[in-house]
Design goal:
Elements: H1 2-14, E1 21-24, E2 27-30, E3 33-37, E4 48-53, H2 58-61, E5 69-73, E6 76-77, H3 83-90, E7 97-103, E8 106-113, E9 116-119, E10 122-123, H4 125-131, E11 140-146, E12 149-153, E13 164-167, H5 175-188, E14 192-193, E15 199-209, H6 218-224, E16 227-231, E17 236-240, E18 255-265, E19 271-281, H7 287-298, E20 312-322, E21 325-328, E22 331-338, H8 343-347, E23 354-358, E24 361-362, H9 368-382, E25 393-394, E26 401-402, H10 410-417, E27 444-450, E28 453-459, E29 462-465, E30 468-471
Parallel strand pairs: 13-14, 13-15
Antiparallel strand pairs: 1-2, 2-9, 3-4, 5-6, 5-7, 7-8, 10-21, 11-20, 12-19, 15-18, 16-17, 18-19, 20-29, 20-30, 21-22, 23-24, 23-27, 25-26, 27-28
Length: 472
């Protein structure tokens, strides 16, 4: 327990630093861009390419997208600059940066990049949802998955030249269902579908039977035959009957599925971009079911794949109730900031307000270390209600890995979290879940002390979803 608390305390100190972040003049600031220098001759060679845009960041608000080739920063060309030089160009948080980017159907476009800042001793609710992730692993977890994908591309073709595409004539049952998934992903990247395009999109698959199900020892297959994959439609992690690439037990696999996705020139038949997926299954999956989770993640590598063989993706779940309160990381009962236009600002909360309780649950242990100690005791008390049939997921801010809650025990979990002695005031962050004492759509009641007076302030939160999959 002591080691866990020590790690979490260190993380709580550093949590405000994330993608594109800095500490400037007592403020913790971030712009929300992650990037790498491209070594791909078909996409932005020698320049930084955006690999991640944080939700609700200034970068997202300005229209940046993954795959953006950053060509100029405040007029300076990025061609052949070192990563350190690019960081220096973006390091100033007291000005707006003018960025020139190119992407599919967005050639030499200008974007304005700024920073969002908060007090350096503040914890936003996004960070608190990470800190208190054991209340709801379903909504706050992080899994690193090595996907069995292989990317190839034509080094002589600039993928910026692709403006639209057409689908090849279907050749197998279910292909049209796959095309719907592909069409959705490619349109989100700025491409348009037209029957007259010179770029043809096609797929191919095969399913091989490796062994009969009656030869597999059921208990052993169950232990190893599930892994987490990202469901792009629901924006969450789900268990699939797929063996992880780093997992034991592949020898028990019953099937192997191979799915290929190609973009090629209609006239020359040259393959311009290709991805092949190959997975081992613990039970049969149709190509349509497999493609629902595979195609969106395969196309994360279009037009730019950070790793061409066995790419590693971070699968991040983060959903929480947002009010806009920024808490003091040393005293969780103290409001150090209230974000502009947020529900808390509209409700009249001010920096300096002291929070005595949330939904009737006291904040009497406002010292962060004491509160975290109580939090882990609560998590330990609730561990019996975990669904041990599911593979565990990594907590966002500790080395603990735990599975989802058992659905049959939701009422028991809510009963514990609703008792004052367990100190679960911050379970309001996941109040849209049946296993928390808060009720979805209802106001959160804050007991506030200000100037010797006590006020009860109702705030209706916004539900935010920052879940995503990105190359790591």
């Amino acid at each position: 327990m002591h080691n866990i608390l020590k790690k979490v305390s260190v993380l709580a100190t550093a949590m405000s630093l994330s993608a594109g972040s800095a500490i400037v003049y007592g403020q913790s600031c971030r712009h929300g861009l992650s990037w790498v220098i491209s070594q791909n001759p078909s996409w932005g060679f020698g320049r930084p390419v955006v690999t991640r845009v944080l939700p609700y960041s200034s970068a997202e608000e300005s229209g940046f997208k993954t795959g953006d080739i950053i060509e100029r920063i405040d007029g300076y060309s990025t061609d052949r600059l070192t990563p350190e030089q690019i960081v220096m160009l973006l390091s100033s948080s007291n000005q707006l940066h003018t960025i020139q980017i190119s992407n599919i159907n967005a050639i030499h476009k200008r974007r304005i990049l700024s920073y969002h800042c908060k007090p350096s001793n503040g914890l936003a609710e996004r960070e608190l949802a990470e800190l208190f992730s054991l209340y709801s692993t379903e909504d706050a977890s992080l899994e690193y998955v090595t996907y069995p994908y292989n990317y190839t591309y034509s080094p002589s073709y600039n993928l910026l030249n692709i403006q639209n595409y057409a689908f090849a004539k279907p050749t197998y049952k279910g292909e049209e269902s796959l095309n719907i998934l592909i069409d959705k992903a490619l349109r989100s990247k700025g491409l348009n579908s037209t029957s007259s395009s010179d770029i043809i999109v096609s797929t191919n698959y095969r399913i091989d039977t490796l062994r009969n199900s009656d030869t597999v020892e059921g208990a052993q297959a169950e232990v190893y035959g599930l892994s987490w994959r990202y469901d792009d439609n629901d924006k969450e992690l789900k268990p699939y009957p797929i063996y992880s690439q780093t997992q034991r037990g592949v020898e028990f696999a019953q099937y192997m599925i191979t799915l290929e996705l190609r973009l090629q020139n209609k006239l020359t038949r040259e393959i311009l971009w290709r991805c092949e997926a190959k997975d081992y299954l613990s039970e049969y999956m149709s190509v349509e079911d497999y493609a629902e989770q595979a195609i969106p993640t395969m196309l994360i590598g279009f037009p730019f794949a950070m790793q061409v063989n066995a790419p590693r993706l971070a699968l991040r779940s983060l959903r929480y109730n947002y009010t806009g309160i920024v808490y003091d990381k040393n005293n969780l009962g103290l409001v150090v900031d209230v974000e502009d236009t947020s529900p808390a600002m509209k409700a009249g909360l001010h920096p300096g307000d002291n929070i005595r309780s949330i939904n009737g649950l006291p904040l009497d242990k406002t010292n962060t270390s004491d509160y975290l100690a109580q939090y882990f005791r609560t998590a330990e008390r609730l561990d019996r209600y975990r669904d041990k049939a599911l593979p565990p997921l990594k907590s966002l801010v500790s080395n603990l890995s735990v599975p989802y809650w058992n659905m049959a025990d939701y009422d028991n979990i809510a009963s514990v979290l609703g008792q004052a002695k367990w100190g679960a005031a911050f379970s309001y962050l996941f109040g849209f879940r049946a296993y928390t004492p808060a009720k979805e759509g209802k106001a959160i009641i804050y007991e506030i002390q200000r100037g010797g007076e006590t006020y009860y302030v109702p705030i209706i939160p916004e539900r935010r979803n920052e879940s995503c999959a990105y190359p790591y």
